[in-house]
Amino acid sequence: MKILVLNCGSSSIKYKLYDMKDESVLAQGGVERIGLDEAFIKVKLPNGEKKQIMSDLPTHKEGVALVFKVLLDPEIGALKSLDEIDAVGHRVVQGGDLFEKSCIVTKEVEEGIESLIDLAPVHNAGHLRGLRAVDALMPHTPQVTVFDNAFHSTMPDYAYLYAVPYDLYKKYHVRRYGFHGTSHRYVSQRVCEMLGVDIKTQKIITCHIGNGASIAAIKNGKVIDTSMGLTPLAGLMMGSRSGDIDPSAVTYLMEKLGKKPQEMADFLNKESGVLGITGISSDMRDIENADNEGNQLAHLALQMYTYRIKKYIGAYAAAMNGVDIIVWTAGVGENQTGLRWDACQDMEYLGIKLDKKRNEVRGVEQILSTDDSKVKVVLVPTDEEIVIARDTQELVKDLKK
After folding, report:
1. Dist CA 230 CA 94 (whole Å)
2. 10: pLDDT strictly greater than 90
3. pLDDT the model gives residue 36
4. pLDDT band at 9 (very low <50, low <70, confident <90, very high)
5. What is the pTM of this model?
C-alpha cells in the first residue's frame, strides 16, 4: 500500500509518499508561497540532492496538482500513475472536541473542520483547502484526517478546563486542547520500544522542543496534561511565541500599544518569545551563537527558555507522582546539546542524571542519562508523518473490508 501524507498550511504543502510494506519514503518535498509571487516546489531526491522548481500557484489546488506532477515526473518522480496512491493522509491541527481520533474524510468531517476554523484560523483553513484540492483532483481516492490534538483527548476535565464560567466552554468550546499530538504519541511509543518497557506501566514526560514547543505528561499510555492550550500560543517560551503570560499583561499592552485583538495575537505569536527578547532571531542556533559571542540578551533568552522547560518537567513529575522517562525531540530538542544539558541540571532530586558524553549527539536515538540515573533521559527523533501514514493505512484497510 502506498500512502501520501500531506501537511497543508496557509501558503504551503509538505508531502511524503510512503510504501507501507516497509514504511520506506519514496518521495518527499514541499510547496511554498502558494498565492504569492515566486511560488515553488522543493523536492528531496533519494540521493539527498534537492531540486527546486518555480511555478505559478494561485491556490492549493494548483499546489497539490504540482505535487502530483512531480511524483509522476519520469526523472525525479516515484510513480507511474496516481492510481498507485491508495490513500492520502492529512495532518489537521485543530479537531476541537469534535474529533478525538483519526477518521476517514466525509462531507460531515469537512464541515466539522470548517466549524473549528475560529479556533485555528490559519491552520484549519489551509488543511481544508488541501483536502478539497485532493478531492477535486483524485475524487475516488480515500482521504484520512489525523488531528494534532487527538492524542491529548485523554486529559481529564480538571486539567483541560479554564477557570472561567462553565457556559463559555459549553457555548464556545473554550478549553485547553494541546498540540504536537502526533509527535508526542510517536516518541512516547518509540521510547518504550527502545527501552523494552510497557507504555502502560510508565510515567513519561515528552519534550517536543522546536520553533514551536510543548511538553506532555503521559501516564500509563494516556496524556494527563500538556503545556499548550486553546491555541499553540500557551505554555513554553518559543521561537516567536510568548508562551504563558498574565492575561492582564496582554490587555495592558493592548492599551499601551494601541493594538486590536488580532494584532495583539499576531504580536504574541510572531514577535515575542526568543525573537522578542533578543531582537536577533527566532532560531535557537542563532541565539546559541550570539550567546557564545557574549550577547547578554541571548544569554538571558537561553536562561528563560530552559527555566520554563525545567518548570514544566517538575510540574508534570508532581502531577504523575514521579517520572520514569524523559524524552527530547523536535528540531531544538534533538540538536541543541547545551540546552538539553542546562534543562536537566539540578534535577537530582527527581533522579535525573545526564551523561555529558552521551548528550553530545544530534538527531539520533540515544539514551542520554547515566547508567545509575533513576530516570531514563532519551533522545528520540520525531516522525509525525509515519504516524499519519499508519493511521491512514489502518482506516483504509477497515474501509476496504
Report:
1. 9
2. no
3. 85
4. confident
5. 0.92
Residue 367 corresponds to which amino acid? I
DSSP 66-83: HHHHHHT-TTT-S-S-GG
Closest CA to 310 of 360, 350, 283: 350
As to burial, measured by CB atoms within 10 angstroms (0-12 exposed, 13-18 middle, 19+ buried), residue 337 is middle
Among 30, 32, 34, CA closest to 15: 30
d(CA 10, CA 33): 9
Residue whose entry in the numeric block shows the C-alpha cell 537530582: 348
- CA separation, residue 267 to residues 206, 273, 278 (Å): 28, 10, 15
Burial 43-71 (b: 16+ CB within 10 A, else e): bbeeeeeeeebebebeebbbbbbbbbebb
Q: Find residue 215's DSSP bridge partners.
A: 207
Helices (H), 321-359: 330-335, 337-343
User: So which residues are the catalytic ones?
Assistant: 148
pLDDT bracket for residue 400 (50, 70, 90): low
Asked if 146 contacts 92 with a C-beta cutoff of 8 angstroms, the reply is: yes
Sign of CA dihedral 155, 101, 309, 244: negative
Q: Are 373 and 356 in contact (CB under 8 A)?
A: no
Separation in Å, CA 299 to CA 294, 296, 304, 334:
8, 5, 9, 20
C-alpha cell at 241: 511565541
| 325-329 vs 203-209, strand pairing mode | parallel
- The proportion of the chain whose per-residue pLDDT surpasses 70, expressed as a percent, equals 99
Instruction: Considering only CA atoms, give the Rg of the chain.
Output: 21
- DSSP letter for 56, please: -
3-state SS class at 387: helix
In the chain, helix, strand, coil percent, each to 5? 45, 20, 35
CA gap 237, 306 in Å, rounded: 9
pLDDT (tens digit per residue) in 302-358: 999 999 999 999 999 999 999 999 999 999 999 999 999 999 999 999 999 999 999
CA distance 125 to 133: 12
Helices in 321-383 by DSSP H: which ranges? 330-335, 337-343
What pLDDT does residue 150 have?
93
